[in-house]
Amino acid sequence: MKIQDxxxxxxxxxxxxxxxxxxxxxxxxxxxxxxLRPHTKTHKMPALAKLTEAYGAKxxxxxxxxxxxxxxxxxxxxxxxxxxxxxxxxxxxIRKLAETIDISFGVDSPCQVEGIEKIFANExxxxxVLIEIEVGENRSGIIMESSFVKLLDTIKACPHVxxxxxxxxxxxxxxxxxxxxxFELAIGAQxxxxxxxxxxxxxxxxxxxxxxxxxxxxxxDVPIMEGxxxxxxxTYIFMDVGQGNAIGTYDRCAATVLATxxxxxxxxxxxxxxxxxxxxxxxxxxxICNTNGMGVFYEHQDISVTKLYDEHTIILNKEFCxxxxxxxxxxxxxxxxxxxxxxxxxxxxxxxxxxxEILKVAGRGKIQ
Length: 368
What we know:
Layout: E1 10-14, H1 15-31, E2 35-36, H2 46-54, E3 60-62, H3 65-73, E4 78-84, H4 88-97, E5 102-107, H5 110-120, E6 127-132, H6 145-156, E7 161-169, H7 179-202, E8 209-213, H8 215-219, E9 230-231, H9 241-247, E10 255-266, E11 269-272, H10 276-279, E12 296-297, E13 307-308, E14 313-316, H11 318-323, E15 329-333, H12 337-341, E16 346-351, E17 354-360
Parallel strand pairs: 1-16, 2-9, 3-4, 4-5, 5-6, 6-7, 7-8, 8-9
Antiparallel strand pairs: 1-10, 10-11, 10-15, 11-14, 12-15, 13-14, 16-17
Helix pairs in contact: 3-4, 4-5
């Protein structure tokens, strides 16, 4: 099968670009003498998770318990859920997973630890947790040192909860005004993460894992400071328009959405069949990931998607309209690939124009 034989909309993965991205990030981690734990929320495909391990990754990260279950069912054995997990239902599911694989997950509040202790109270193997440190993204995670110490005291009082380490995500680097500010934010995030790890050690915890993640920093070769033990990027495997803008090229973008021209109602308006349900309505406004429009054409990288309805792609560009005919199929590089992958049951892995494999997106919809 060739790309042009695929029905649309469809998720297309360029094998050679993807493999180059995998190798790049593994080399980057190896050069800095840290472990690599790719975040699979980007692709949600067990086959690709296994591929990154084959290249040298020590395990994988996921965002949700459901994703961990899908990866474990496919044979992945070392999984970190890089998110706060709350509630007896989810803790019970993690307890079940812990019977057969190495699984750890995030916490940032004492009540979480107390709840986990009750679920794991009869287990020989303790729950493995990492404390999230807020490093500027203004999302979840520990902010105050006093809160961190209180959380450590709670863990110390819970014999069935073991502190594996700390983790952070500097998503605020996406909004950096330039590469210099990106570097400054990244170094600051690393220092803050290591600082809290050292507090834990002073209070009697080994804290062997100090995990840090964000694709635009690593793709721009940000230095990794001593004390960081693990990198946790996700988007790097495919890249996208936002990440391409952060590094100044779309040449590393491995994932595209194949779409068909279905209408040309005017001389300047082209309609395609990959709407918001195929591309999402994600935008990147401001910072090094700033983008124009809602996607860029793989074949014509100076032309962007102007607007998206549920089932329609709108391109308001007379030059583009003159170039294409109804029935033509073209590839669109998404602005943000992670939510796009979650829209598809399968992806087509291609080499050149040839389809070489169809990959199951086993983690699709696993949001609980």
